[in-house]
């Protein structure tokens, strides 16, 4: 309300005129609208002059607003609009910041929080106001002051940090992995005045990445470190010039478990042996690895020869005592392993050499009887032999695992009519480089490596599969079996089970064993032959005549066919001794009502002489070289179609 005196104060005058106080001051200074000054320096305006001016302004306003007042009003409206826009922008910014899942933060120059948005509670488990004045690294799981100094030092030097990862502990003792981006703030002098940045909870991503890395270096079945982890660990030790030992462990006869109890039982056995090894090595400074299949490894750092042998013997004993109960009734026991030991740097100054030499020692342990440990032997001649055997053993193992056994056949010809009556199955191996290996290159090694039984079983399995795929094929097939196979009771049981489930007419399969092998274990051979005959299968005695003592046992071997050894047939036309012997063999065989087959016939003269001597069948290069079994069926089908057409 205006005062009751004859004068207005500057505020009263400005309010009446509707103009700012500072403009009245300017008008007073310019002499446009003078004011009286009080003793205290305050401006006082004549009531009369102000009232007159007010009346004049009202009249002017009714006619038309003055240009100056219009400009003032427009300026005020523009400022009001800008303020409203700024306020709206501020609200949007705060909404975005406060609702962001990323932590948005700022700190002072020492890294102490001055601001955090609401995402702080998700990461730290604390409200933002509880964190003001604290640092990121106050909550880290490691030494916080060290991490904080390192972080700030890097930030001062580089200006920013991207994707810095740290781990913080929440009040409930749970851990969160946090990824931090930060940038330093500079004052007008170019000095660091604070830090601003963002952070994100990357716990799920970090754990997923860690899991992938874990799987890359661990066996999924046993969760033991794998070959890659062992290689990296050993590389570190060897490069440091340390000493130690690596043990390669291979389970003996593991394939028998898979074949007889199933792969699930095999997996459980692998897991059980892995646990046995870990428990056994718990008192040693050792790590256990599964390096593939049924193979494990143990790394013993700072360990020399005798200590390594003690550790290996502890493993042998622990495995012998272990047994697996499967399906609440089947017990897998009496297990053994073969162990090879290599010491570094004595047996290799790099990981490849160490692995190779431990492998050699392990295979040597298998060759001399299994269930033992062998320290690598550097004798040159021995190494050459072992390397050769290991190469072939691996080649055979890979061929079996990948089913690269090839079945070839050679026809058996009837002398009376020269038509094909049977085929002999001959096994070959296809190598990874495309070559086809004949049996003379691998059979002996397969027997020495204990894999001939698997080869025999695979050959019969593949033949049965072929016969099922070719239902119109009515040929009969001779199949060779090893002495080691028919002497193995477990193999014989698997073999009988295979035949029982085959669905193939027994008369179409003739199994044969060499005379020398038959004579090695006569009773075993007799029992095997009797069982096959009772099942309806036929049997042949191969390479007949190679063992002269067999005449005594011939009448006891209830075989259907006798195959005269090729060494007597070659040169038959020029060697009188061979002629006498072959004639005698044929006479004896015919007298015992056995069918005689002469092998390795290559000339017409040999064929004529064998026919004259009374042989029933012949086979050899004179008629055909061995060819893949698929080609034999194609030829047979073509011939039948030609005849029927």
Mean pLDDT: 82
Q: Using DSSP, what is the number of strands?
A: 25
The shape, in one word, is elongated
Spans where pLDDT lies below 50 across 5 or more residues: 637-645
The CATH homologous superfamily name of the largest domain equals: EAL domain
Keywords, please?
25 helices; Multidrug-efflux Transporter Regulator, Chain: A, Domain 2; disordered C terminus; eight-stranded mixed beta barrel; 645 residues; Alpha-Beta Plaits; five-stranded antiparallel beta sheet; Beta-Lactamase; alpha/beta
Written description of the protein model:
There is one protein chain. The chain folds into four domains: 7-64, Multidrug-efflux Transporter Regulator, Chain: A, Domain 2; 100-207, PAS domain (Beta-Lactamase, 2-Layer Sandwich), CATH 3.30.450; 218-378, Reverse transcriptase/Diguanylate cyclase domain (Alpha-Beta Plaits); 400-644, EAL domain (TIM Barrel, Alpha-Beta Barrel). It has 25 helices and 25 strands. The model is unreliable at 637-645 (pLDDT under 50). It is of the alpha/beta class and 645 residues long. Helix 10 (254-261) crosses helix 11 (263-280). It is elongated and about 165 Å long. The protein is 49% helix and 22% strand. The strands form five sheets. It has an eight-stranded mixed beta barrel with strand order 16-17-19-20-21-22-23-24, surrounded by five helices. It has a five-stranded antiparallel sheet with strand order 5-4-8-7-6, with helices on both faces. A five-stranded mixed sheet has the order 10-11-9-14-15, sandwiched between helices.
